[in-house]
Amino acid sequence: MSYTTLMKGCVLTAALLITACAQSPQAIQVAPEFPAPTQVNGDGNPVHVRVSDQRANKVLGSRGGAYRETSVITLANDLSLPVETALSAYMGAMGYDVNSLDPNTTNVHVIFSSLVYDHPKEDGLGYDMDMMAGVEVEVRRGNEHYEGRYRIKRNQKFFNAPSNSHNSKLVNDLVAEVLISMFSDPKLVAFLKRN
Description:
Layout: H1 3-21, E1 26-28, E2 46-53, E3 61-62, E4 72-75, H2 80-93, E5 97-98, E6 106-118, E7 127-141, E8 144-158, H3 164-182, H4 186-193
Parallel strand pairs: 1-4, 2-5, 2-6
Antiparallel strand pairs: 3-4, 6-7, 7-8
């Protein structure tokens, strides 16, 4: 084997290794899917749902790799409308009268304060992803109001870096999970059911 052929092989191997360590940026389409609700207790109470994104940092995190600063994960769309639509449908399935024109309608404003999906800098076995979602809810009906904060946080380990489609699924599942967690707050449920 000639020196030139050997050098070409080394350069090609190095290029492949660098490429394997790099991760390209990803923009995730927000489209959460909710499972069928475990409780159908809305009793036809009228609600109007609004969702807003007040995250200070619009970057979810990094996919890691050799160039973690540029291999960022962001959202491809504004999360407000798709989440609002999905949450309204979920509350409708729970038995609430969604987007009612009733003057006694309860206004439910869900505010996203954080959404994190990040590969930490530490090296180790496997491939870790830190996941966290935080929302605040402001519920108003007439002169009454209720406020709550809900957060989901976990770390998940993978053998290899998750694919684009797997990242999208995990982020959308995280969004749905933090919203479903609101309805395990008995004070919020009691306020929503009160006429």
